[in-house]
Amino acid sequence: MSLGGAAIALRAYAATLARAALLRDRAALERWRDRRLAQWLRAWAGGARLAELSPLDRHGLMADFARLNQLGLSAEEATAMAEGRAPLPLGYHVGLSTGTTAGRRMPYVISEAERFVWLGTILAKTLGAAALQRPRVAVALPQGSALYDAANRGHALPLCFVSLAEGFDAAQARLIAFRPDVLVAPPRLLHWLALRGAALAPRFLFSAAEMLDPPDRAAIAAGFPKARLGEIYMATEGLFAVSCRYGRLHLAEDCLHFDLEPAGDGTAEAVITDFTRQVQRMARYRTGDLVRPVPCPCGSPLRAVVVAGRASDRMGGHAPDTLRDAILASGAADFRLVQVGEDNPVLSLAPGAETTAPRRAVEALLQRPVKVETRPLALPEGAKLRRVMRCP
Ligand SMILES: [Zn+2]
Q: Are residues 214 and 282 in the same domain?
């Protein structure tokens, strides 16, 4: 890590802790956020009010990409840079989101400085003052991502970035060699490491970038009984929420503005406006993620949510977590529920599992026949684990 990078990360770390200390109630937080948002709108939206900006989804962002980043790069140019087919502009990084069923991967542009702001912010929100004891932090995420590998060049902090591109065995070997005190990884990897009895003794585990479902939570707790398990809700679009000591995710409303638009089944879609990053503008961006507002006793003025799944994975008007919870409540230890096009959904259960009650639970919600199969339920190494999934 360059000295400049370390200084930027440290300043962002201190600023995040200062905001947490100063913005103690909702009114103070909203006043501060509204002031920052107004500054941002003056700089980037000609002083328009937020409500006057039309919401942008993934397709709109790709189509309008050149207008939305300071460098004026088109989505095609940015993709070529992210894939190494074109040189990067000095001081900037370009990455690609992990692939989804929505098709093309989405590029994003971030400056060197913004990456270190991200790093400092995430350290403050996850570890608080404990970050100053220089814990060994490993971040294991799907692929070489411009956002995260700010961590890798570190001497100021013992940080290690592990790409999952080479598979779980390779990731496990790197993690064991690094001996992290703090491990940030998708829940499917934490689950896999727990089942393997991996020779790791982290004090903190953070499930990141994917939904943490009860089967993963139970396996991780059993495999790492001494570690505290937290959650980080993030995407290439940014850091959206970090869990508190009660395990509830609190939206990063001190960095982004969140509109929670009602999306049925008691959920809301998170629509974000990022007033912290400058290089790529995210104004009223539809994340496609469903969340449920929940109370939290910790006293934070940041709203608490649980992640309910992807809007595009809804079936019969039900959010993925509603279907998941009904299947688990019927006695299944684990499952996959996949619907292709308008076909009847297929419920997969582990060999030997009782199938009637889980099938009835899904059929009662969806009001249509559900096909059941039994097969080993592997933890995918090369793709996100979505237990409830719709494919085009
Ligand atoms: Zn809380």
A: yes
pLDDT for 84: 87
| Ligand 1 centre distance from Cα of residue 22 (Å) | 17
Centroid of ligand 1 to alpha carbon of 73 (angstroms): 39
Which residues lie closer than 8 Å to 70 by C-beta, 6 or more apart? Answer: 109, 278, 279, 280
Closest-CA residue to 384 (of 236, 179, 282): 236
For residue 367, the enclosing domain spans: 320-391
**Looking at the structure, do residues 297 and 327 belong to the same domain, yes or no?**
no
| Position 145 pLDDT exceeds 60 | no
Mean pLDDT of the region 133-148: 76
Region of residue 368 (left: phi > 0; alpha: psi -120 to 50; beta: else): beta
Do 348 and 304 share a structural domain?
A: no
Q: What pLDDT, on a 0 to 100 scale, did the predictor assign at position 144?
A: 52
The count of domains in the chain is: 2
CATH of the domain at 230: 3.40.50.12780
Expressed in angstroms and rounded, the spacing between residue 284 Cα and the centre of ligand 1 is 25
Of 105-119, 221-235, 238-252, 284-298, the poorest mean pLDDT is in 105-119
CA–CA separation, 299 and 154 (whole Å): 34
User: From the CA of 363, how far away is ligand 1's center (Å)?
Assistant: 35
The CA-atom distances, in angstroms, between 10 and each of 81, 116, 158 are: 29, 8, 14
C-alpha of residue 240 to centroid of ligand 1, in Å: 15
Residue 1 Cα to ligand 1 middle (Å): 32
Looking at 276, 310, 344, the residue that finishes a domain is 310
Give the pLDDT confidence of 164-189 residue by residue, as tens digits: 888 999 999 999 999 999 999 999 99
Asked whether residue 271 falls in the same domain as residue 305, the answer is yes
C-alpha of residue 104 to centroid of ligand 1, in Å: 36
Residue 157 pLDDT exceeds 80: no
Which of 286, 310, 334 is the last residue before a domain boundary? Answer: 310
